[in-house]
Amino acid sequence: MAETLLVNEIYLSLQGESTFAGLPCIFIRLTACNLRCSYCDTAYAFTEGEKKSVAEVRAEVYRLAKRFSHAARAGASATSLASNSPRAAGTSRSNNDSLDIGRHRLPLVELTGGEPLLQKSSLPLMKALCDDGFTVLLETSGALDIAPVDARVRRIMDLKCPSSGESARNRWENLPHLKCIDEIKFVIGTREDYDWAKQMITAHSLAAICPLLVSWVHPLAPEQQDSSLKKVPAGQTAISRQELAEQIIADALPVRFQVQLHKVIWAPEQRGV
User: Fold this and answer.
1) Fold of 4-84+93-265
2) Contacts of 242 (CB under 8 A, 6+ apart)
């Protein structure tokens, strides 16, 4: 029987977060999540989805990536005509003839959710996409084992802060499996979150493992609020985006403060971007 996945949506947009922010990226959003973070803005992915085979998902990725291959070939032809000579050996693009920035084939491909690792077929899908030459990113909550993920995949792993209501679900056993190409993300909505993140960075020497990301909790639009989400624990003090940025500077915290670009460009509640 073919390996299948429950897929919420697949779309091409710009990567809004991580060290790859701003680059074209195909997002594969999988259905279901085992957490209910207070700030979750994709509650629609808890249950909505359509069953697809791994082959069907790969075919859709190739369909969306096709225009980049055409642009690469057009660029190569222009370069060849300008130089009036064929490209020298060793200067050709990847075997998929795609645009690239550095060593990364464009577009990027990211598995997100929901929680992708809840579906076992996400593992062979990520391996196949790596074999296809894509730079593959995985957005994961940090509550499940990341060890089985293909070593070529760049894992962007959350450490859930107190205001999420899910900090007890952090799987600390994942830390030894992280590599320098991976990234750790803290989503911060309160001063208590910031203090906790700062403590974890020091206690676990996280800056020596991989890049660290800090995201501010963007308020949920009414249509994004879901009754199943956890409540922010009582007694916590909200922190503004500016306060968070200024505190990072004041403390010389070794992190990358990131703004969710897709929420700046499009309406925060818009899907498929």
Assistant:
1) TIM Barrel (3.20.20)
2) none
